[in-house]
Amino acid sequence: MTETTSFKHVSYLWDDAKAAELAGDEVALLIYRSNLLGADLRLTNYGGGNTSCKVTSPDPLTGQDTPVMWVKGSGGDLGTLKKSGLAALYLDRLHALKNRYRGLEFEDEMVNLFNYCIYDLDSKAPSIDTPLHAFLPFKHVDHLHPDAAIAIAAAKDGEQIVKDLFGGTLGWVPWQRPGFDLGLQLERCLAENPGIRGIFLGSHGLFTWGDTAYESYLNTLEVIERCAEYLEENYGKKGPVLVGKK
Ligand SMILES: [Zn+2]
Description:
Elements: H1 16-22, H2 26-38, E1 50-58, E2 65-72, E3 86-90, H3 91-96, H4 109-114, H5 130-134, E4 140-144, H6 147-153, H7 158-166, E5 170-173, H8 180-192, E6 198-201, E7 205-210, H9 213-234
Parallel strand pairs: 5-6
Antiparallel strand pairs: 1-2, 1-4, 2-3, 4-7, 6-7
Helix pairs in contact: 6-9
Bound molecules: zinc ion (ZN).
Zinc ion (ZN) binds next to loops.
């Protein structure tokens, strides 16, 4: 991953001093990162996208440490996200739901089961994107709808463009309605392409991640910047840059 903090097509807003005040509080850093991402509408549309982090916290029932995922809940916007807009869920319970999954035609019944996975009782209602974050093993995960990435994700030869642009470091999952099954597709894509830095969702958007809130933020900006550069480099050169899907 190249470390650069100078971007032309996206706003780099990370403030080291502010982040240092939040150091050690992964949920506060998640909220901080989310607000920065949501502040630049080129990164995601209003109300679109979601972010998450995975931490280890004591289970109130047993006192034992257990993995917990904090993820943006249903509704609201990343730019103004607060702790009350997050849902916190037991990660192992979310994974255990795979044993209850009966297949694509029944995936909507999984949404109700998310409620049985809630860890923090003040959680916002979990969104249908919850399994998309849960089934990726990374500590911090961003899912956005960036204009530049969607332009490529919705192009007829989008998958090939992503391959050419990122040299196999980004995966590709074809369009599928968000839900439990798409989470499984992301998990499969990562298993088949270990070491990737993100996944394009055909006609939809982008998943990127990192070990820390900052690494995830930077990875997200770098991928979107590269997409925007590609569009800029190719505008007007060879007729239409992209041809949309039928
Ligand atoms: Zn989305």
